[in-house]
Amino acid sequence: MKITQIMLASGFGGAERSFVDTAIALSRRGHEVQAICHHKFSRIDLLTAEDGLRVDTVRTMGEWDFITPLRIASLLKDFGSQVVHTQLKRAAWHGSRGARKVNVPVVSKLHNYVHLKRYRYVDQLLCTTADQRRHVLDAGWPTDQVSVIPNFSRLEPVQQVKARSAGGAVRLLSYGRYVKKKGFDYLLRAFRLLLDDGVHAHLMIGGQGAELDSLRRLADELSLGPDVLEMGRWLDDVKESLDLADVFVLPSLDEPFGIVMLEAMARGVPIVSTKTKGPVEVLNEDLAYLVELASVDALYMGLSAAINDEAGTRLKASRALQTYRDLYYEDAVLPQIERVYQKLCDR
Known about the structure:
The chain is of the alpha/beta class. Helices cover 42% and strands 18% of the residues. The protein starts with a strand and ends with a helix.
């Protein structure tokens, strides 16, 4: 099948990772794949490094831009695309208008709870959770044009959960964009409480973003020096970072899904997560330590439990690893996406 993937953001976060992973995974499954991205997409190198994957760029502007759909239509026609898959609102708007000009069906993946006006030319919506589906149906979207397919990860699952290293600091890991909704300020305060309890621990918060300076000021106020805290570096090798971690922390205030959670599950790293919408559809108390959001004390208690109950923590991580293999690894999810494509092509 000839499949076009479209993402028109320039930065790199969970949605952009989904775009890259989907394009590469489909190409490796034998499809002919075209990836259309913003000309300043920060991780275009991940796409161009993949043999057999066609990469095209567009110089897109705002939603009023009428040139980008024309450019996309031309690229689709040249490639001979049979189906278009967009990610995020801008790609859905420009991509669906371009595809409409050359009569190619469009699948759009939702990553957030957005207004659906710019999705009106889309043939099928992919929601990552049941709660997103409720949001879409409440907005009046036809039931038969909505599918629930979870995010997936290409990260290979480990064979078994490793034991925590004897002695040394407990290694806590979190990562993502430095924005308010990620809750990293709550994590820093909870980490301070752990240290005050006498826990020998090290915290890595990988990422970049607008809140970096604010987080650094907070770390200084809390006397979190470089001997216990590492921050401000994007994690180029997520697998390596996870394999060094003893506990993964997801302190988000709002998380529609959370691909980082899947990555931790894949590598058998125990998880402490807030009860945001995405994580509670994937995790339960058998798989992770779930805590109330926007609470320093709750996060601290969850971290303490994960650190102090090593046997229980390993059991949760082992169950989470098996859940990842069964439901969220690429081999489990890609066939579901392919069936949606085929259904649209058969119309």
